[in-house]
Amino acid sequence: MLAAQPTLGSVQLTFTVDQTATFVNGEPAALLAAPRVVGGRTLLPLRETAALLGQPLLGTAGQVQLARLSVDTRQNSAALNGQTQPAGTVTTLGGVLYVSARTLADALNANLSSDDGRTFTLTALRDGGNPLIPQARFSTDKTVYAPGERVVYTEYPFDPDGADITARRWTGRQDAYFQPGTYTISLTVTNARGLQSQPFTRSIRVEGTPVDTPLTYALKYGQPGDSFPDPQILSYPSATPTTTESPSYPLLFSDSPEVPAQSGVLYQDSLAGRARLLAYHLNGLGRPARLYVMARNLESRPVEVRSERLGETAPTRIEGILGQVTLLEYFASGGGTVLNLLPGQTAAVYASPTLGAGSGVNVMQDLITSGRVELTFLMLEDALPPTAQVMQQLPYLRPDGKHVRGTFPGAVRSLRVNLGALPARIVIGDGRVDPALTGTDVLTGQGVRLSGNYGVLYDLEVNGAAGTAVALSPRGGLYRGAMNIQDGPITQTIKLPRTGNALKPDEPVLLWRPQSDRLNIDFVPSSGSNLPVSLVFYRARTLSGFGGLIKTYRP
């Protein structure tokens, strides 16, 4: 069923008794309930007819109003300008409310005509509407499209008094339609006063030879962070990266016990020089608490502790966002904060916001020190300050047996790849093609393995990247993260995915379309998400067998 468009002064509905096919201003439409003749009266389904004419139907389930006509749906009675109408004017057939076509025409000041007594034309003025509500408007660049052809939408809603349009709600809108058929698209807008427009509707038809498939369309038009279907993705061969030597440094990882039930020391080690810290914990104390990373100068001289990069997410109860927000903050941080510690002095290099019971924190921080310092990860109930006296009385908390803590050499993994035949995949975090880091839990002396390499920065250089598209495919379940890319003079952090979660291996998320032959990607596996993942490279140029049409206008 198509709603009438406010393009003409009149809306003309042509219908035939006992037939659902109709015409609105010459365009074919359809009723779910056919017009009927009962007791010598031609009857129309009230709600469907009002929609086709673009007339508002107001009221509740028991009483509805259409222009000058008031209908009591419980009694099947009607009044026109307050005057009771004859019995049979309103009736219910098969659960559908019908009204006399003649009475409906009188209510709308419309004209009802017929040549044969079976086919009728109802001509009514379009509804004037509420003069205070905003008006929704949009157009499409065409009315007939090929399957997979991009639809260009131009929006031009307005408010009668110039108030801002603050919200838009679309139904039926897609950037491309891949199956033949007729599609109805509707827009409703809301202004700054909270008033909502009537829906504005247009229809398009899709037919002919396909221009693109969902995959080739995404490679042309998809935005970074968008997902798209690719059922063949797990069949693509792996591109084997080469590991190169580069300056690296240790990772201090604190994730066990992940949910401490009391105040105490989560992890502790000493270092000199550069290091990365990663902590992931939920407050299991049953009362407000905070996570601290304390630095104590072990030298007999002053030591400088510089924070080069810092990303955190806290507080939150939604584990899926912990790692993603931390990475976005980490890549955006400028660093440069300095603490100067006298011999033996202790200060916090990180202090979380107050965490409610059950709330979590994720922090990743790059430090560089001018001498040896001891770093201590603490969870403290909010009433306790992280003083040296308090710290001396805290217990060392035992690992929970499920998660990992420790010091791991190699916080940076430098990889180089030369692309050949495409599509191809680079696998990260599977423990086989990409081996897990091994290290030591200094508090217990035990060797530990960092499955997933959380906190490891993959410095990936891809050669032969120009003219490709790169996407991320989750292989272990839910994934929410971020990557930083350098494409010639362009440096950009990409939120992956743009909304929601990446879940399915056959629905990769577009990362970037490189312009330069050499693409550099900084990737850190996201805490709270599942590994492994694959980086998938496609040839982004127009594929043979599909149209070369590319629409560049983006209003």
TrEMBL record:
<feature type="domain" description="Copper amine oxidase-like N-terminal">
    <location>
        <begin position="24"/>
        <end position="117"/>
    </location>
</feature>
<dbReference type="InterPro" id="IPR012854">
    <property type="entry name" value="Cu_amine_oxidase-like_N"/>
</dbReference>
<dbReference type="InterPro" id="IPR035986">
    <property type="entry name" value="PKD_dom_sf"/>
</dbReference>
<protein>
    <submittedName>
        <fullName>Copper amine oxidase N-terminal domain-containing protein</fullName>
    </submittedName>
</protein>
<dbReference type="Pfam" id="PF07833">
    <property type="entry name" value="Cu_amine_oxidN1"/>
</dbReference>
<dbReference type="InterPro" id="IPR036582">
    <property type="entry name" value="Mao_N_sf"/>
</dbReference>
